[in-house]
Design goal:
OB fold (Dihydrolipoamide Acetyltransferase, E2P), mainly beta, single chain
């Protein structure tokens, strides 16, 4: 019997993307960030969510899509990676789905050297990327094992 994993599916420009649901702390409506001059383009600043200040990652920029102003319908996905919390700015959170590991396509078999991507997944009729979060954010952050 194949093992399954839960994946939070979100959209950017109506394209599906996925992250392991076990890394998700909570989903919030978007808030205006405190912009930090000379911050990396994909991390424009920080947000205060219920008294916890954390870096804001513009997932559009991080995924190579054009940035746009934060909208009322945008959402923040708070994730926990080791000792660090991040707020991911996404267009929309679509669903949490359980996907059999056998249904996740290995991207290395199609395009060698795509270590940021854990797999390719189907969501409805669309094909989406399932990210390996620690690797995906390794250029910007270091992660210590933690809570």
């Amino acid at each position: 019997m194949s093992e399954a994993q839960k994946v939070l599916v979100f959209s950017l420009d109506e394209r599906p993307f996925g992250i392991p649901a076990d890394k998700v702390v909570h989903v919030y409506p978007s808030v205006l960030p405190l912009l930090i001059p000379s911050a990396p383009e994909s991390i424009p600043g920080v947000v205060d969510i219920h008294g916890q200040v954390m870096p804001l990652v513009d997932m559009r920029k991080k995924c190579g899509l054009p940035s746009r102003p934060i909208g009322l319908s945008d959402q923040l996905v708070q994730i926990s990676l080791g000792n660090r919390n991040l707020a991911l700015l996404v267009d929309q959170v679509d669903d949490i789905v359980e996907i059999e590991n056998s249904e996740i396509l290995d991207p290395e078999s199609l395009i060698p050297g795509v270590g940021l991507v854990q797999g390719l997944l189907r969501h409805g009729q669309a094909l989406g990327l399932l990210y390996r979060l620690e690797t995906f954010f390794a250029a910007e952050f270091s992660f210590e094992p933690g809570a």
